[in-house]
Amino acid sequence: MNARAAHPGRGLSPTLPLLAAALLTAAPTMAQNGPRARDLGVPFEGEPGPWNAITDVAGIEVGHHTIIRGEGPLRVGEGPVRTGVTAVLPRGRSSRGRVFAAWFTLNGNGEMTGTTWLRDRGILEGAVMITNTHSVGAVHEATIAWAQENLDAPDWSLPVVAETWDGFLNDINGFHVRREHVFAALDSAASGPVAEGSVGGGTGMRTFGFKAGIGTSSRRVRAGGEDYMVGVLVQSNFGGRRQMRIAGVPVGQEIPDLLPEAPAEPDFAAAASPDAGDVPVSGRTGSIIIVAATDAPLLPHQLDRFIRRTTLALGRVGSIASNGSGDIFVAFSTANQAAAENEDGVAPLRNIANNNLNPFFEGVVQAAEEAIVNAIVAGRDMVGVNGRRIYGLPHDRLQEILREYNRLNPPAEGG
Known about the structure:
CATH architecture: 4-Layer Sandwich
CATH superfamily: L-amino peptidase D-ALA esterase/amidase
Radius of gyration: 20 Å
Number of domains: 1
Largest sheet: 6 strands, mixed
Number of helices: 13
Order of helices and strands: HHHEEEHEEHEHEEEEHHEHHEHHEEH
Distance between the termini: 17 Å
Number of strands: 14
Helix content: 25-40%
Strand order of the largest sheet: 4-3-12-11-10-9
CATH topology: L-amino peptidase D-ALA esterase/amidase
């Protein structure tokens, strides 16, 4: 097993049935081992870091726990299960991780806990956790418990837990994400390459009607004569097929087929169309969680400006931030550690001058766009409750379309 596939599989529960355990082990590996968008020749602007991941920002660790179990008819509380949890730790597992931070919501049909105090204080403490809509409470409680067991955590805590809806494929009302799964995601967190697609919180997600989930990317930034890194991780779960654009090309209009299917539910087939970005049973049109990070000394008000620029990346890929979408973003800086952790007296601060912010704005837009496309490219066909199916984006057809529009780069070596 290569390095990319190694860390997301740690911490699996030995109590799961053998088949489920095999699926749990395989899912992160399959999601990560396939080609990424650049490997297929998708053109992007800017220079990524060595892993082209949020973990290129030194000190950040990411962990996933994936739950894939069962097939056939939906039995609430039993399955089928297609869900999980993802953890982003700004200063790694060994730190409470206080960092200067900011958050922003483009459309509020979703949840990210802990943001009221984050906005007032300008500080994020602990991990950013991402899961499905109905598991926010379980993940919130378990994240506190993990911090109590593993860190010098205070008696009060306001974790940041975000969500997107996976109820088309997953028994979302069965509440299958539990404390041991959250602990497994946090315990498995590591630096290095990050598994993408149907892994962790992204297991049951889709984008523009194609299978998607977790995606990540990074950019090197130079400002004020110094070099910095910008990284982005997304849980992508939004959009109607007709809106989908990759590298400026209307890919969704060129692939009007391979829409989500529900063979056991005839009413679904009548409602499905190239404009159906979400499933009719939900009434929602998807969501996206964006986590952006940098090692540059940006202060909270600057991070607020920084994270707002990720909305431009959503526009690039075709999002309109529809009424039913939960588009919620958080950003943090790993610089100024002493000041972020200071609770008394005066601490020294460094910060980037406002006139030098443009490279960070450009870098975060570029990284967010690529992270979203990586999430889609990493998606593979998945069947969930009641035999519902979401197809992965066919790589060969994507390349053919980009070639027709003269937008295909030569595939990367080793891709």
